[in-house]
């Protein structure tokens, strides 16, 4: 009996490692707080848990929020605001103190998985671009002193406007004035530290500016004829995939195609001004609902089919104090009352449906879904092994006075 148990435990270990070693797609959400009517963080955490959301991205390191997220199992991306970049870049001691006060003071009870150093720095009117990579390096060095550098990644979200070309997708390239001063050093840092590039991707902006040229269904992940890239021959069925691959093409052009991409923001507004074409509740529901399904049930992009998508929706709430056009205050999936702005299947529903959907998806998509199918099959085999192990233990308890 002991030998049989050892055999089954070995098989369980092998298959568990097989599952957990596979990269998996994920949906998180941005929790912005530029509002004066939001529920307290403790209630927000309950909302996240009720929706099955296990990853959240913040725009600061607010103590009340980080404390509320402790011991919840929710993975957290925190941020160093742009206004601190110059201090962090020029003073290692400042970076050390910031990391100790805002990261190690909460970790690991609060499962901080990454630090976003700045946000869309290249379009910051205060011109903080030159501080970005030195600040990232110093924050990383601070983590290393605390032996946290292997557990917490350091990155920085860039706006899609950092590209000078994105159509056709294969022509994706970064703005020339950014390449040598900051893009290459940042990509080198990400490669060296095993981190990833954060990119904010909004098909809404492209559609609103070019609604006469872009099919709305293409922008919303709905059925459409697709667009064939004249450069690489790939067919794109969504503007989102095309934009993500434009960034992949841009990193590859600089010989950094091995650096993974995480979509740190994407979303669609439920309301907008008269000139914000496409901003509506119906379109927001279609985009975000289809995006969740696309991420959790699909493979990677045409250029990176084996890299599952990791995406943070923008945003959790409508934020009534955000400046700018009406759309800026209407990206939320929820009102501050915690009522849904529109009804879409968030991760909890998708995850519960995944086992039955997975088999269908694997059959329908054949070889393109090999990575996804591998995970599904491994999980199925693991379930069988667990059942056999339970039976074996039951048999042992009947036949042996000691249960073995």
Question: Can you describe this structure in just a few lines?
Answer:
With 404 residues, this protein is α/β, with parallel strands linked by helices.
What do these coordinates show?
The protein is built from 13 helices and 13 strands. The protein is α/β, with parallel strands linked by helices. The strands form 3 sheets. Strands 5-4-3-2-1-13-12-9-6 form a 9-stranded parallel sheet. A two-stranded antiparallel sheet has the order 7-8. The radius of gyration is 23 Å and the shape is globular. Residues 5-22, 348-377 and 397-404 have low confidence and may be disordered.
Which helices and strands occur, and which strands form pairs?
Layout: H1 2-21, E1 26-30, H2 41-50, E2 55-57, H3 63-68, E3 75-80, H4 85-90, H5 92-104, E4 111-117, H6 132-145, E5 153-155, E6 157-159, E7 163-165, E8 173-174, H7 176-193, E9 197-200, H8 203-209, H9 216-219, E10 227-228, E11 235-236, H10 239-253, E12 261-266, H11 281-297, E13 310-313, H12 347-365, H13 370-399
Parallel strand pairs: 1-2, 1-13, 2-3, 3-4, 4-5, 6-9, 9-12, 12-13
Antiparallel strand pairs: 7-8, 10-11
